[in-house]
C-alpha cells in the first residue's frame, strides 16, 4: 500500500530510488539501524542524516518500535497451540467450569512497590508507610503453588526449597484434592497444569492415573493461555497495597488475600478474572460491572464474561467497536435512518451492556425530547442516547428506545 501525504516542508533529500532502497532493506531486515541506512546510502553516493532517514521511513508509514517480547515458540509449539485452540473452540462454558487450573508463581517481596507513589507531607518522608525499602534482589521472594476453578480459589501452598517430582505429588495430594472437595467440583472435573518436567515426570503421570485424575492436554510454552495468570496478577497488586515488610509477612498476606472474606464462601479472587464466573455478591472488583436493571428476556445472563450479558452467538448482533461488548440483537433494530453527532445512527428497541446517564431536555431535529446519554458499560464510551420522553405525539414511538451511532458498532456473529 502506498500512502500519499500532502506535500509539506523542504523537498525530500532522498531520491525515490534511495527511498525504495532503504524501504527494501528494512522490509527484509526490520532490525536495521538508521546508521546502517546512512552508511548504505553513502556507499550509493547520497549523504543524508539519520533524521532524514527517520522522516523518509515515516513518510512511508514506518516507525521505529520496540520489538515485542513473545515466548520462544518452535514450529511444534505453534502447531500444538493451534491444535489446542481448534480442539476447544466450540467448547461450551460448562466444560471450562469443570477445569481446575493450577500453576506455580514467584512472588517478590517488593515486586510491584517500586512504581508506587505516595501521598504524604514533607515531614513524613521517612515514615515507613511512605518509604520503599531498597534491598538487593528485591528483598527476596517466595514461590507459591495455587489452584482455582470457576467455583473459586483453592488452596495456596508455599513451596520451600527446590521442588522435585516427589514434592510436587505431595503438594497435589495435600492441596489439590482437598481444594477439589472444598469447591465441590463434582465428578468429571479436569486438572490443568503446564508441561513442567516435574508435572510430566513418569512417576507423577502414574500418580495422576492411579488417582483417576483427568488431565487437560496442554500446549507447551503457553502460560498466556492459563487464566490463573490473571489471579496471580491480582494477588501481586493486592500484596503491593498491603506492603509486607519481610518474607514471613509476605506469605501471611498471600494466604489472607487468597481466602475470600466471608460470606459467601464461594466468592473468591477468581471474581476478578476476566474469563471466569463470578458470584454477583462480590463487590469492589475493578473488572465487574453489575447490571443496573434486569436484562431483556432475549438476553442470557452470563457469569463468564466481563460483559454483563451476551447475546446468543447464532444471532446477528451488534457489538461495541471499542471493546466488543455485545450491544444489541439485530432483531431489536427498529430503524437505520437516524442521525447522530458522528453520522448515521440506529434505533433499537432494547440494548444490553449499556449504562444510562441522567435525562435532560434537548431539541433534536424531530422536536423536543427528554434524552439520556448511553454508554458502553464495559469501556465507558458514549454510544448514543435513550429517548426517555417525547413531547410530540408523532414521536412517542421512540420513548424507551435507544440510539446507537454506527461509528461505535461492529457486526458480530451470524451475519454470513
Ligand atoms: Zn465498549
UniProtKB/TrEMBL annotation:
Keyword tRNA-binding: no
Location of the Yippee domain: 316-413
GO molecular function: DNA binding; metal ion binding
Chain coiled-coil ranges: none
GO biological process entries: DNA integration; DNA transposition
Keywords tagged on the record: Metal-binding, Zinc
UniProt cross-references to PANTHER family, sorted A to Z: PROTEIN YIPPEE-LIKE CG15309-RELATED
Family classification: Belongs to the yippee family.
Descriptive protein name: Yippee domain-containing protein
Amino acid at each position: 500500500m502506498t500512502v500519499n501525504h500532502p506535500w509539506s516542508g523542504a523537498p525530500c533529500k532522498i531520491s525515490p530510488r534511495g527511498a525504495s532502497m532503504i524501504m527494501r532493506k528494512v522490509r527484509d531486515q526490520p532490525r536495521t539501524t538508521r546508521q546502517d541506512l546512512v552508511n548504505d546510502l553513502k556507499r550509493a553516493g547520497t549523504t543524508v542524516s539519520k533524521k532524514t532517514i527517520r522522516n523518509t521511513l515515516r513518510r512511508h508509514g514506518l516507525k521505529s518500535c520496540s520489538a515485542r517480547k513473545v515466548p520462544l515458540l518452535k514450529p511444534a509449539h505453534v502447531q500444538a497451540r493451534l491444535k489446542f485452540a481448534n480442539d476447544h473452540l466450540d467448547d461450551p462454558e460448562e466444560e471450562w467450569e469443570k477445569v481446575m487450573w493450577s500453576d506455580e508463581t514467584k512472588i517478590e517481596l517488593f515486586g510491584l512497590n517500586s512504581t508506587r507513589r505516595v501521598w504524604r507531607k514533607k515531614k513524613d518522608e521517612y515514615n515507613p508507610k511512605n518509604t520503599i525499602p531498597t534491598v538487593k534482589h528485591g528483598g527476596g521472594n517466595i514461590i507459591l503453588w495455587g489452584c482455582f476453578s470457576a467455583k473459586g480459589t483453592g488452596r495456596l501452598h508455599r513451596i520451600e526449597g527446590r521442588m522435585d517430582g516427589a514434592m510436587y505429588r505431595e503438594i497435589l495430594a495435600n492441596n489439590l484434592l482437598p481444594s477439589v472437595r472444598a469447591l465441590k467440583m463434582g465428578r468429571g472435573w479436569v486438572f490443568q497444569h503446564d508441561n513442567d518436567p516435574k508435572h510430566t515426570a513418569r512417576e507423577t503421570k502414574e500418580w495422576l492415573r492411579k488417582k483417576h485424575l483427568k488431565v487437560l492436554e496442554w500446549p507447551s510454552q503457553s502460560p498466556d493461555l492459563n487464566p490463573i495468570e490473571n489471579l496471580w496478577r491480582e494477588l501481586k497488586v493486592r500484596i503491593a497495597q498491603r506492603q509486607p515488610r519481610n518474607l514471613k509477612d509476605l506469605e501471611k498476606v498471600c494466604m489472607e488475600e487468597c481466602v475470600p472474606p466471608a460470606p459467601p464462601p464461594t466468592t473468591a479472587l477468581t471474581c476478578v478474572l476476566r474469563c471466569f464466573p463470578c458470584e454477583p455478591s462480590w463487590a469492589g472488583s475493578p473488572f465487574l460491572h453489575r447490571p443496573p436493571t434486569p436484562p431483556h428476556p432475549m438476553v442470557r445472563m452470563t457469569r463468564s464474561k466481563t460483559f454483563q450479558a451476551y447475546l446468543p452467538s447464532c444471532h446477528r448482533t451488534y457489538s461495541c467497536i471499542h471493546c466488543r461488548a455485545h450491544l444489541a440483537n439485530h432483531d431489536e433494530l427498529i430503524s437505520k435512518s437516524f442521525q447522530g453527532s458522528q453520522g448515521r445512527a440506529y434505533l433499537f428497541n432494547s440494548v444490553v451492556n449499556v449504562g444510562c446517564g441522567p435525562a435532560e431536555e434537548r431539541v433534536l431535529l424531530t422536536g423536543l425530547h427528554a434524552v439520556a446519554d448511553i454508554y458502553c458499560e464495559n469501556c465507558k464510551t458514549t454510544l448514543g442516547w435513550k429517548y426517555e420522553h417525547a413531547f410530540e405525539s408523532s414521536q412517542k414511538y421512540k420513548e424507551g428506545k435507544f440510539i446507537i451511532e454506527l461509528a461505535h458498532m461492529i457486526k458480530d456473529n451470524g451475519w454470513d
